[in-house]
Amino acid sequence: MSRQISGPRRATYYVGGILMLVGAISFGSTFVSFAMHFGDFDMDGAAFGKSMMLRAFGGIVLIIVGGAIRGIGAAGLAGSGAVLDPEQAREELEPYSRMAGGIVKDALDEADIHLGRGPPQKVVMIKCPSCGKLNEEDSKYCQECGRSL
Fold first, then answer.
1. What share of the chain in percent tops pLDDT 70?
2. Which candidate, 52, 74, 54, 69, places its Cα nearest to that of 18?
């Protein structure tokens, strides 16, 4: 399994992001145009309206398409669900799985929690002959029934 994301996938991710940015600028420019020409009655309203609608809908389409391309670039074809191949999806999502594990490890280290480190400790328990309850090694009386151990 690869620990790095391939160059073509990175390029796809960035192309999708650029398309989303262009779409957002196109969509946002309709509001700027509307504000700039508010109350301007000397221009052709139909052509202006068509231009604004084209930019608004074109911007929305670019945002959606760019988001899909960016998702495929981030997770790969199988990782994003475009191709149904669990083995390939596992391979494509491996860098993210490793990253998530690293984040959890950092959080555990920060909280000073150590899981699975060092040899396992042996615990000796004494079974009560009367009720069968397991008691700690240094107990003199059963924690369940109170009888002498």
1. 91
2. 69
